[in-house]
Amino acid sequence: MKDPLPPFEIELLPAATTSDGELVSEITDLVNRVYATAEEGLWVETATRTTTREIAELIAAGQIAVARMNSRIVGAVRIQQLDTDTGEFGMLVADPAHRGDGIGRKLVSFAEELSRQRGLAAMQLELLVPRGWTHPTKEFLRAWYTRIGYRPVRSSTIDESYPQLAPLLATPCDFVIYRKDLVSPGSIDRRNPFSPPKTGPVVTW
To answer: What is the rounded distance in angstroms from the CA atom of residue 59 to the CA atom of residue 14?
Structure first.
Protein backbone atom coordinates (compact mmCIF):
# COMPACT_ATOMS: atom_id res chain seq x y z
CA MET A 1 0.00 0.00 0.00
CA LYS A 2 1.27 3.44 -0.92
CA ASP A 3 2.11 5.73 1.99
CA PRO A 4 -0.36 8.61 2.52
CA LEU A 5 0.53 11.80 0.66
CA PRO A 6 1.99 14.43 3.02
CA PRO A 7 -0.08 17.62 3.24
CA PHE A 8 0.66 20.15 0.53
CA GLU A 9 -0.57 23.64 -0.22
CA ILE A 10 -1.17 25.62 -3.39
CA GLU A 11 -0.50 29.34 -3.42
CA LEU A 12 -0.84 32.08 -6.03
CA LEU A 13 2.53 33.76 -5.60
CA PRO A 14 2.50 37.42 -4.56
CA ALA A 15 4.15 39.75 -7.07
CA ALA A 16 6.78 40.68 -4.46
CA THR A 17 8.26 37.17 -4.58
CA THR A 18 9.70 37.94 -8.01
CA SER A 19 12.74 39.27 -6.10
CA ASP A 20 13.38 35.82 -4.57
CA GLY A 21 16.04 34.51 -6.94
CA GLU A 22 16.16 31.06 -5.36
CA LEU A 23 12.39 30.64 -5.72
CA VAL A 24 12.43 31.80 -9.35
CA SER A 25 15.26 29.41 -10.17
CA GLU A 26 13.52 26.49 -8.44
CA ILE A 27 10.35 27.00 -10.49
CA THR A 28 12.31 27.49 -13.71
CA ASP A 29 14.34 24.32 -13.15
CA LEU A 30 11.21 22.25 -12.40
CA VAL A 31 9.40 23.50 -15.52
CA ASN A 32 12.38 22.86 -17.79
CA ARG A 33 13.05 19.42 -16.27
CA VAL A 34 9.45 18.26 -16.72
CA TYR A 35 9.09 19.65 -20.23
CA ALA A 36 12.40 18.14 -21.34
CA THR A 37 10.70 14.75 -20.98
CA ALA A 38 7.12 15.74 -21.82
CA GLU A 39 8.16 17.33 -25.12
CA GLU A 40 11.15 15.17 -25.98
CA GLY A 41 11.72 15.11 -29.73
CA LEU A 42 9.64 18.22 -30.42
CA TRP A 43 12.34 20.83 -29.95
CA VAL A 44 15.96 21.20 -30.97
CA GLU A 45 18.40 20.15 -28.27
CA THR A 46 19.38 23.70 -27.29
CA ALA A 47 15.79 24.80 -26.62
CA THR A 48 14.35 25.14 -23.11
CA ARG A 49 10.73 25.69 -22.09
CA THR A 50 11.31 28.84 -20.07
CA THR A 51 13.87 31.13 -18.44
CA THR A 52 14.28 32.73 -15.03
CA ARG A 53 13.48 36.07 -16.66
CA GLU A 54 10.15 34.82 -18.00
CA ILE A 55 9.17 33.16 -14.71
CA ALA A 56 10.02 36.36 -12.81
CA GLU A 57 7.85 38.38 -15.20
CA LEU A 58 4.93 35.94 -14.79
CA ILE A 59 5.21 36.07 -11.00
CA ALA A 60 5.23 39.87 -11.14
CA ALA A 61 2.03 39.69 -13.22
CA GLY A 62 0.36 37.47 -10.60
CA GLN A 63 0.15 34.48 -12.95
CA ILE A 64 2.15 31.74 -11.20
CA ALA A 65 0.75 29.36 -8.59
CA VAL A 66 2.90 26.74 -6.90
CA ALA A 67 2.26 23.56 -4.93
CA ARG A 68 4.50 23.05 -1.90
CA MET A 69 5.10 19.94 0.16
CA ASN A 70 7.27 20.26 3.27
CA SER A 71 8.25 23.75 2.05
CA ARG A 72 9.54 22.32 -1.24
CA ILE A 73 7.96 23.19 -4.58
CA VAL A 74 6.44 20.08 -6.16
CA GLY A 75 4.31 21.67 -8.87
CA ALA A 76 3.44 24.88 -10.67
CA VAL A 77 0.97 26.34 -13.13
CA ARG A 78 0.48 29.60 -15.00
CA ILE A 79 -3.01 31.14 -14.70
CA GLN A 80 -4.12 34.10 -16.77
CA GLN A 81 -7.27 35.87 -17.94
CA LEU A 82 -7.61 36.04 -21.72
CA ASP A 83 -10.75 38.19 -21.95
CA THR A 84 -13.87 39.09 -19.99
CA ASP A 85 -15.16 35.50 -20.14
CA THR A 86 -12.17 33.18 -20.46
CA GLY A 87 -9.27 32.08 -18.30
CA GLU A 88 -6.33 29.95 -19.38
CA PHE A 89 -3.85 27.73 -17.61
CA GLY A 90 -0.54 26.53 -18.98
CA MET A 91 3.00 25.54 -18.03
CA LEU A 92 1.43 22.88 -15.79
CA VAL A 93 4.10 20.74 -14.09
CA ALA A 94 4.34 18.29 -11.20
CA ASP A 95 7.56 16.90 -9.77
CA PRO A 96 8.17 13.47 -11.40
CA ALA A 97 8.94 12.08 -7.94
CA HIS A 98 5.28 12.69 -7.08
CA ARG A 99 3.70 11.51 -10.31
CA GLY A 100 0.29 10.00 -9.61
CA ASP A 101 -0.21 11.89 -6.34
CA GLY A 102 -2.85 14.20 -7.85
CA ILE A 103 -0.79 17.38 -7.72
CA GLY A 104 -1.48 18.25 -11.37
CA ARG A 105 -5.22 17.76 -10.92
CA LYS A 106 -5.27 19.94 -7.80
CA LEU A 107 -3.37 22.68 -9.65
CA VAL A 108 -5.94 22.59 -12.46
CA SER A 109 -8.77 22.72 -9.89
CA PHE A 110 -7.10 25.70 -8.23
CA ALA A 111 -6.83 27.49 -11.59
CA GLU A 112 -10.48 26.77 -12.39
CA GLU A 113 -11.74 27.95 -9.01
CA LEU A 114 -9.66 31.13 -9.17
CA SER A 115 -11.16 31.85 -12.60
CA ARG A 116 -14.67 31.24 -11.26
CA GLN A 117 -14.02 33.71 -8.46
CA ARG A 118 -12.97 36.23 -11.11
CA GLY A 119 -16.36 35.77 -12.77
CA LEU A 120 -15.09 33.88 -15.81
CA ALA A 121 -17.32 31.43 -17.66
CA ALA A 122 -14.75 29.15 -19.29
CA MET A 123 -11.20 27.86 -19.03
CA GLN A 124 -8.93 26.87 -21.86
CA LEU A 125 -5.50 25.39 -22.48
CA GLU A 126 -3.16 24.85 -25.42
CA LEU A 127 -1.62 21.47 -26.15
CA LEU A 128 1.36 21.32 -28.49
CA VAL A 129 1.25 18.16 -30.60
CA PRO A 130 3.47 16.86 -33.41
CA ARG A 131 1.98 16.79 -36.88
CA GLY A 132 1.82 13.36 -38.52
CA TRP A 133 2.87 11.19 -35.57
CA THR A 134 1.80 10.45 -32.00
CA HIS A 135 3.86 11.54 -29.01
CA PRO A 136 3.17 9.26 -26.00
CA THR A 137 3.13 12.06 -23.41
CA LYS A 138 0.91 14.26 -25.56
CA GLU A 139 -1.48 11.38 -26.12
CA PHE A 140 -1.62 10.81 -22.35
CA LEU A 141 -2.35 14.49 -21.76
CA ARG A 142 -5.04 14.54 -24.46
CA ALA A 143 -6.84 11.68 -22.71
CA TRP A 144 -6.32 13.20 -19.25
CA TYR A 145 -7.65 16.63 -20.21
CA THR A 146 -10.65 14.96 -21.84
CA ARG A 147 -11.38 13.02 -18.64
CA ILE A 148 -11.45 16.20 -16.56
CA GLY A 149 -13.89 17.91 -18.89
CA TYR A 150 -11.87 19.67 -21.61
CA ARG A 151 -12.83 19.43 -25.28
CA PRO A 152 -10.86 20.49 -28.38
CA VAL A 153 -12.39 23.55 -30.04
CA ARG A 154 -9.81 24.54 -32.66
CA SER A 155 -6.20 24.18 -33.71
CA SER A 156 -3.50 26.36 -35.22
CA THR A 157 0.06 25.98 -36.37
CA ILE A 158 2.85 27.20 -34.15
CA ASP A 159 3.83 29.57 -36.97
CA GLU A 160 0.47 31.32 -36.55
CA SER A 161 0.41 31.44 -32.76
CA TYR A 162 4.09 31.79 -31.84
CA PRO A 163 6.18 32.48 -34.96
CA GLN A 164 9.25 33.22 -32.82
CA LEU A 165 9.25 29.61 -31.59
CA ALA A 166 8.92 27.93 -34.99
CA PRO A 167 12.69 27.86 -35.70
CA LEU A 168 13.25 25.96 -32.44
CA LEU A 169 11.04 23.03 -33.44
CA ALA A 170 12.65 19.74 -34.37
CA THR A 171 9.45 18.55 -36.07
CA PRO A 172 6.30 20.26 -37.44
CA CYS A 173 3.75 20.86 -34.66
CA ASP A 174 0.29 22.28 -34.10
CA PHE A 175 -1.47 23.78 -31.11
CA VAL A 176 -4.79 22.23 -30.15
CA ILE A 177 -6.94 24.51 -28.01
CA TYR A 178 -9.11 22.79 -25.39
CA ARG A 179 -11.96 24.49 -23.56
CA LYS A 180 -14.15 23.74 -20.53
CA ASP A 181 -17.21 25.55 -19.27
CA LEU A 182 -16.79 26.41 -15.60
CA VAL A 183 -19.55 25.12 -13.33
CA SER A 184 -21.09 27.21 -10.58
CA PRO A 185 -18.76 28.02 -7.64
CA GLY A 186 -20.80 25.83 -5.27
CA SER A 187 -20.41 22.71 -7.37
CA ILE A 188 -17.94 19.96 -6.47
CA ASP A 189 -16.24 17.46 -8.72
CA ARG A 190 -17.07 14.23 -6.87
CA ARG A 191 -14.07 12.43 -8.39
CA ASN A 192 -11.71 15.05 -6.96
CA PRO A 193 -13.49 17.14 -4.30
CA PHE A 194 -12.25 20.72 -4.34
CA SER A 195 -13.89 23.50 -2.40
CA PRO A 196 -11.31 26.16 -1.53
CA PRO A 197 -12.26 29.09 0.66
CA LYS A 198 -13.32 32.31 -1.04
CA THR A 199 -10.75 34.33 0.88
CA GLY A 200 -7.02 34.12 0.43
CA PRO A 201 -4.86 32.63 -2.34
CA VAL A 202 -3.63 29.59 -0.39
CA VAL A 203 -5.36 26.19 -0.33
CA THR A 204 -4.07 23.30 1.81
CA TRP A 205 -4.74 19.56 1.36
So the answer is: 7
